[in-house]
Amino acid sequence: MFAQLKKFVMPIGVSGDESEISKVIAEEIAPYVDKVYNDAMGNLIAFKKGKGKKPKKLMFAAHMDEIGFMVSYIEDSGFIRVSRVGGINYTAASFSEVIFKNGTKGVLVPDARILTKEYRPENYYVDIGARNKKDAERRVNIGDTCRVAPTLFRLSGSRVAGRPIDDRIGCLMLFEAAKAAQSFENDTYFVFTVQEEVGVRGAKTSAYSIQPDYAVAADIGGSGDVPMCAPFAVNMSDGIAIKLKDGMVICHQKMIELMKNIAEEKKVPYQLEILEGGGTDTCALQQAAGGCIAGAVSVPTRYGHSAVEVVDLNDVAGGVKILAGLCETKLV
Amino acid sequence: MTELLQKLSSVCAPSGKEKAVAEVIEKEIAPYCDSVSYDKIGNMTAVIKPRKKCEKVMLCAHMDEVGFMVKNIDSDGRAHIVLLGAVETRTLSGRKVRFLNGTTGIVTTKPIHVLSEAEVGRTSPADKIFVEIGAKDKTEAAQYIKIGDFGTFEPKFTEMANETYAGKAVGGRACVSTMIELIKEAHAAKKAKTLKKECYFVFSVKREIAIRSFFAVETAAFHIEPNKALVLDTAPVCDFLKEELMTGAKCGGGIVLAPADIRTIYNRELFADAVKLCEKKGIAYQNPTFADLPGGEGGAIHQNGGGVPTLSVGIPTRNLHSGAEIVKAHDMRAATAFLREWLISDQ
């Protein structure tokens, strides 16, 4: 699973500019489904026909975009001002290596003589080593995207650290579920959504087009087991979390029950997640077009939106079993 | 161009009361369109289709403007108002305003002589602003205005050197005027069989009072279900503050092509192709210098239905949302040229 995750972590896919990661996932998942295509927004949809007459539509969503930066201005001196894309933690991103889609490398740094507590997004620039504006423009243009360099490495046991685990870990879960499912009882759509980090935009439009009966998002969650954190009843390594609620959605009881039953049947350890803030694709899935029965699985994650997001691959494996179980369940 | 812009900017049409300007626009464009229709919330859609079946594109410009509404009339006959849209409140005091029924008033606030130290240099909050219409009491005021009446800045169009235009709502109406010119061009292109797109020109309503992503134009997009969309709107100008590093666009610097704003990441291909098209045809363009600019109608359009690849084109406008917005004919011409080339290109 680690090697597969590495394949999904490395390609760039800053929100609105996901073509690289889309290509990689499309190639990987194609052997396990009937059809793979991109829609108008760029969402990657892998479709597997269900058995029998008039099967229900089941949609899985994991976002393939990641937080990053977009070039907004190139100074005469060749330094590059960037606009944030998604919820950047500037403390985490300061003084790190960034890589552009075309491979250009740079470092993200704050203006000199600015105190840490005074950091504002507009105080940051990327130094690609250019001598002047003209030199910089040979490699970078307005609108180009970049992100903090990807990385993935093993920690103790089945725990791993790196970025962007948010939400390539969800993409991995969808991929592994498509691979592991013994049968497909429903028309199943594995959707790798775009622009989640800027406001669940891709999930909204893909769910509108698909109009699923049931939908499940797979994303990272939080972990309540680190020093000084707010009380939160989900701990890393205690199993995959089934979402009850987050800042933007209350999951459907039927979906919660369905997933709990599968987990119990397959002896998958699970936890129930109530996330105080933040949101996932789940809210968009639930409300698109006429609405649907929606829920989510969350991978307990430490240090989200940093370059060292930490998850336990055992939790992930449990999540895969639940998603595969849904594929194998005849939904009515 | 001057005459049309003057005519358009002289019409008072605050958000929610766009009928007056819609009538002017409809009269201008009707002879050139296959059809003109309104949806239930007032968006106007004009259609020009080439004979051959081709992709559907939606081009939109909003026809409303910032303004105000009367919320209360006090015992001294003064009108207390709520602002419609992000009105430039720093320059409101002493401004002449006009109610839609023709009544004229002057915006009034606490005189500078009696301001406390904390108030000096600050803008008056909206609830401390009122409109004086000269009435002696509430009863007399009722002859001129009533609660719920709409108003805007006094229309006053000024032409300055180098085809520079100033007046209320000039930025928004420059976009409307550009769209009207474009409709004429599209009509000609249809006749010449060079038109490559099925065009839906939308003049939208209530853009200025949209909060978050709730734009009225969404309704039009829902009905049209376009394959692509292009949003024409104003772009804030702030080119005189040399010490400010990250400012808006330049007035007279050409159309503004934005890769992204707060509500929308514009379609990568459309954006890249637009830049190429400008380079190829020698059309003046510029990128906004800060992509965190507040977003426009694209935010609603690109997420509509199953998703719509969207592009943003801006006309640089100085003093946005004030009583005297400023645009340059040069930028309007660049916008018309770009849009025309876009419609007859394969992009």
Structure description:
The complex is a heterodimer of chains A (332) and B (347). With 332 residues, chain A is of the alpha+beta class. Chain A folds into two domains: 2-66 and 164-328, Aminopeptidase (3-Layer(aba) Sandwich), CATH 3.40.630; 68-148, Peptidase M42, domain 2 (Elongation Factor Tu (Ef-tu), domain 3), CATH 2.40.30.40. Chain A has helices spanning 2-9, 19-29, 90-93, 133-137, 165-180, 201-210, 253-265, 282-287, 313-328; strands at residues 35-38, 44-48, 57-63, 68-74, 80-85, 96-100, 105-110, 124-127, 145-148, 151-154, 159-163, 187-193, 214-220, 240-246, 249-250, 270-274, 293-299, 309-312. In chain A, strands 1, 2, 3, 12, 13, 14, 15, 16 and 17 form a nine-stranded mixed β-sheet that branches. In chain A, a hairpin with a 5-residue loop joins strand 1 and strand 2 (44-48). In chain A, helix 1 (2-9) crosses helix 5 and helix 5 (165-180) packs across helix 9 (313-328). Chain B is α+β, with helices and mostly antiparallel strands. In chain B, the strands form three sheets. Chain B has an eight-stranded mixed β-sheet, with helices on both faces. Chain B has a six-stranded antiparallel barrel with strand order 4-5-8-7-6-9. In chain B, strand 4 and strand 5 form a beta hairpin. In chain B, helix 1 (2-9) packs across helix 4. The longest helix of chain B has 22 residues, at 170-191. Chain B is globular, with a radius of gyration of 21 Å. The chains are: A alpha+beta (332), B alpha+beta (347). The A-B interface holds A 15-17, 19, 39-41, 43, 70-73, 75, 81, 83-85, 121-122, 142-143, 195, 198, 201-202, 204-206, 208-209 and B 227, 245-246, 259-260, 265-266, 268, 271-272, 287-292, 302-309.
